[in-house]
Amino acid sequence: MDAIILQILNGLDKGSAYALIALGLTLIFGTLGVVNFAHGALFMIGAFCAVTLQRLLNLSFETIDPDKTDFLGQPLKVKTPYVESWFGPDVGATIIDWSVPLAILFAIPIMLVIGFVMERGLIKHFYKRPHADQILVTFGLAIVLQEIIKANFGANPIQTPAPELLSGVATLMDGVVYPVWRIVYFCFAALIIGGVFAFLQFTTFGMVVRAGMADRETVGLLGIDIDRRFTIMFGLAAAVAGLAGVMYGPINAPNYHMGMDFLVLSFVVVVVGGMGSLPGAVLAGFVLGILESFASTTWATTTIPGINQIIIYLVAIIILLTRPRGLMGRAGVMED
């Protein structure tokens, strides 16, 4: 029972990342009809927003400490972060320690701007083009963004540790221990997903967007600037992917190819859930995350070697053969 609970928790942890990325992908496809292969790069940029803030907070200046000497007996130079000199040693150290959660505030405006620029500068020119053209141009953009990150941050993973208070393990039911930050990530994902659904369901803006997703032409005929609202939704989708990347840094150290690692799996999640279906994307993300977790157990990999690498694709094949529109997809989508 302990092993089952642990694998479910692992699946929810991984499924949270799948669901958040797939949610943004579905928002973009549902509103703009664009297959955005650059969405994984937005996840990566979010993670490197946390890296950037961490480096900014650790900027320091050197002072000479007369009470400390080196091995030659000379006064020792000590590096003091600017935040510690501005706010005091204790408060400054706390700010540095909590750099990853603080990066949420840092990443939101950056991701919104990147999303707006992508949509206005590139994506809007491919609305009426075939999906193959959209995939090619957004995949090319993803490679460009990946190489920019590699050129500026290097090819090696960069550690972004969780705050010390949240870096330990928690004892759950039946004595199962689990990393606190992974629990925090799942709760954060649930909060973001709930916020997106509440925004679309209970705000006037969200209701107009949902109407535009169902019938864009009719909403436009009512005098509503639906294109501007869809541009805002693209920015929000970019922000969701970025925040998913920010909080994922302590789980998996950010590197320049992490966006590509999640991109293909997230598209599989979207297809399994149903193209254009937000609930389907979230459901499929968690279900496939749990399946992948159980497929990674020693028993599963011993019984069927490599099953952990292909389980998601096997499920996708079965779903597409039996229900081409996905678990919760609309009738007629991906069925012609």
Blueprint (SSEs and pairs):
Blueprint: H1 2-32, H2 39-57, E1 60-69, E2 75-81, H3 82-87, H4 89-97, H5 99-121, H6 131-153, E3 169-171, E4 177-179, H7 180-202, H8 204-214, H9 216-221, H10 226-248, H11 258-273, H12 278-295, H13 298-303, H14 307-322
Helix pairs in contact: 1-7, 1-10, 1-11, 1-12, 2-5, 2-6, 2-10, 2-11, 5-10, 7-8, 7-10, 8-10, 11-12, 11-14, 12-14
Membrane topology: Multi-pass membrane protein
Subcellular location: Cell membrane
InterPro entries: ABC_transp_permease (IPR001851), BCAA_transport_permease (IPR052157)
CATH architecture: Orthogonal Bundle
| Residue-averaged pLDDT | 85
Number of DSSP E strands = 4
Which sequence of SSEs, written as H and E, runs from N to C?
HHEEHHHHEEHHHHHHHH
Structural class: mainly alpha
* Number of alpha- plus pi-helical segments: 14
Residues in β-strands, percent: 5-15%
Write down the CATH topology.
ABC transporter involved in vitamin B12 uptake, BtuC
Mind summarizing the main beta sheet?
2 strands, antiparallel
**CATH top level label:** Mainly Alpha
How many individual domains? Answer: 1
Amount of helix: 55-70%
Radius of gyration: 22 Å
**Spatial order of the strands forming the largest sheet:** 1-2
Q: Ranges with pLDDT <50 over ≥5 residues? A: none
Protein name: Amino acid/amide ABC transporter membrane protein 1, HAAT family
Subcellular location: Cell membrane
Organism: Lutimaribacter saemankumensis
GO biological process, one term: amino acid transport
